[in-house]
Amino acid sequence: MRRLKNAQMQTLALDASSTTPLHQQLFLGLRQAILEGRLTPNTRLPSSRSLAADLTVSRNTILSAYDQLTAEGYITSRIGAGSYVSGDLPDDLLQRKGTGAVPRLAKREIYISKMAASLMGSPVPRQYRGLPFSPGLPALDEFPFEDWARLLARHWRRPKREFLVDNPVGGSQVLREAIAAHLGQTRAVRCTADQVIILSGSQQAIHLVVRAFAEPGDSIWMEEPGYPGVRDAIIAASATPVSVPVDEEGFSLAQAKILAPQARLACISPSHQYPLGQTMSLARRLDLLQWAKEEGRFILEDDYDSEYRYVGRPLSSLQGLDEDNRVLYVGTMSKVMFSGLRVGYMVVPNDLVDVFLALRRNIDSHSPSVPEAALADFITEGYLSAHIRRMRLLYEKRQSCLVKLLGEKLGDILTINTQESGMHIVAFLPPAIPDSAVESAAIASGMLIRALSGFYNSPTDQNGLILGFAGTAEKEMPQLVDKLAHIIRNLSK
Length: 493
Ligand SMILES: Cc1ncc(COP(=O)(O)O)c(C=O)c1O
Prior knowledge:
With 493 residues, the protein is α/β, with parallel strands linked by helices. It has helices at residues 22-35, 48-55, 59-71, 91-95, 114-118, 145-157, 161-164, 173-187, 202-213, 228-236, 253-259, 282-295, 353-363, 369-380, 383-410, 435-444, 477-492, and strands at 2-3, 43-44, 75-78, 82-85, 196-199, 219-224, 240-245, 265-268, 298-302, 327-332, 344-347, 415-417, 424-428, 450-451, 464-468.
């Protein structure tokens, strides 16, 4: 056994002004010395009393560091015999330097499941979603954060017990009630609070609906072009997305039946087709409901931004027309509030409530409950509808401004499709200017303008730009449209 010379401990520099407590500094210093081999196995450590005197710290500081080293197996302490560096530290542990640095990553083969690999190609990383023209980006600086903060504070200050533990899987009852009433008034959705299930965004709802009905390999209809999140959810469930071309009346059952007559589920956006914007005709809606009834199938209605309608009253949901409980209605707070809130919801037929509660419980039980309670107040006390009313007027002006500027600067190149609802427009390009090239150049200059062709699963000659107008202030638009004009004219040369 070697007795440690206290000189060896002089390398232990403790800093009394640091925010790291002295006992922690000592623990880390000794651990480092052991891992680097400066303190070798079986070396006897100084007694706590003498080390405390050497380092001019209290004896408790030393005892606390020794206790932690003992608990983690770096040293052993024998009553009456003192403390020793452990004799059986594995060699590979001793070779690790314990600096806290992330271990070097050598190149290696990793088996990734086909499902995970197929989800890797998402074209636009999330950090771009806040850029000007990002589709679906709301006017964040217009949000009533003061009111929102007050409601949150109210619930955090005196949280009800049920919001801290044992929150129901389907979400707080108060929020389910508030959303049921809100959807009844604004979207003609017919439901009770028990049919509403609160989720972490509508993407989660899409996942759960697909999982509830699809066996691996089953065909599921989605729109072409359509929301990539639907395709990803279908792939994640090992089912097969069947892309059904939409026309001016929206999703076509006749086309869908030709492509995959046995499909398990239809995923559609009937009020405002994503991304082209048309409304599904009444005849097509009734046909699809009839198909679902006759075949015992279900329809996922993605109602992602229908609150913003600039002509007449908001259209009624498909769910509100359904007499056979065949529609799973999905909505989100991401467009009317902000996507960071991560609140979406679904409304399901009564006999499917338990199925969806079980699916949600299997993932993460429920979303944070206190914000749910604040959101319930935000809805029932009228803040949400006031905000939506204000934003409807603002977005209408923003759309007109953008369309006017694009007409002035690019009217000879773009064919602009103005929207009666929603938060984005579609501007078609001539074939000589590929939309994907405009998308890349726009991202490089700080604008998220999406290529229409990217919303197709099959190769397409559709060529256009999706430009969100809601989240971009009118005063910034002239400069941004100039930048876009510059990009497009360069590509057309
Ligand atoms: C058409 C459509 N559906 C669903 C979603 C998912 O939204 P979230 O998961 O934020 O509720 C989005 C988001 O952009 C969307 O555009």
